[in-house]
Amino acid sequence: MQPVTFLEALQYAHSKKIVLPDEFYSMDLKTRQMATTVSFLSSLEQIETVIKAVNKSIADGGTFNDFQKLIAESEIILPKHYLDNVFRTNIQNAYGHGRWQQQQRNKAKRPYLMYSAINDSRVRPSHLALNRIVLPIDHPFWLTHYPPISFRCRCTVIALTEKQALKYGITPDDQLPEVAEALDWSSHPLQFGELESLVDKKISASSLDKEYLLEQKEVIKAEWTASKKLTSLFAPMDDKTRDLFDTVANTVIPLDPSIRPSAIRTFLDYVQGNDAALTTYLSQPSISLADDVLKRWLTTDIAAIQAVASNTASTVVGSATIQQVVAYEVGQTVQLHTPLLMAEGADDIVMQVENAKGLGIDLEMLNAGNGVLFPIGLSFEVVSIEAADGRMVYTLRALKN
Description:
Blueprint: H1 6-15, E1 17-18, H2 21-24, H3 29-32, E2 35-36, H4 44-60, H5 64-73, H6 80-105, E3 112-116, H7 125-128, E4 134-136, H8 141-145, E5 156-160, H9 162-168, H10 195-205, H11 210-233, H12 239-252, H13 261-271, H14 276-283, H15 289-308, E6 316-319, E7 333-335, E8 340-342, E9 349-354, E10 361-362, E11 372-374, E12 379-388, E13 391-399
Parallel strand pairs: 1-2, 9-13
Antiparallel strand pairs: 3-4, 3-5, 6-9, 7-12, 8-11, 10-11, 12-13
Helix pairs in contact: 1-4, 1-6, 4-5, 4-6, 10-11, 11-15, 12-13, 13-15
């Protein structure tokens, strides 16, 4: 297949609407496919300058150093590692789209695609698990796993003839690894306005196991529904929240580039006390597959931030942010169904958590204030309940697995 031309890549890059970060993170995935932003910038003018520099690099075949010089000339200050992320992610998105368009035009001759991951020390295990997967170009798998599938993804897809596909071996559906798409960084080139009808059409025409494909369809629908639900639960971003978002992102992304923007948004809502909608949702039983998906995302998101900013104190003391403590009894085992923020305050109820080292997120490590945010799923034993200085002190001991 001919290489993707800069014109095909540039056409896609120019077609994307430039938006502010809070608007971008509030979009459903269908709309997000045709939008772009830069998290650390708060004005459309600055974001447009950066994106235009990326597009110029695509058109001119420029390097990262060329891009960096353009940004420096614009007097926009961004960390080098973040500029590198912006540059490489947008380049990959643009060329991924151009490659998909070519493969669609040529699919009569090359009706199969093979996922190709770069097997080196930097490849993510989840991406390497997809390496050498061979499937028909119209298989539903490519709806969610066409690269780039996450931030700075370097993977690609190779178009194959039927003879080549048979030589490599077509991957059976029951042998596809369970690797979820990083939806917040998603840039799949398909436009999903008719997602359900498109999937239904492919299923009806497929010779593969229909029951399995229908299950996959339900998974896809659940992920899209979960994405829309998640953005609806976030509190609106004001200037203070946007500044804090940038601060936290600038801290965690260099440590783990795979952390989703929604992970930071979830974290901030709890830190700033804007968690009412999220807490209410998490406290309710799941009634759909989309609920299960979203709750798994929220649990994974908080855990990802915890991994790079774990608290180091063995005992954590703070005001209680959950009302249920008044019903606690000594000897009772308590499990968190929502994140629990422990921070200094003047409340009448104080919680003291023992055996807590490494179990929560230290806000100070992220320049997000003082206190510890404990994630979903932790269990505690109520050790004592005492009155001291006019306040009720609940002492809990974290139960480690």
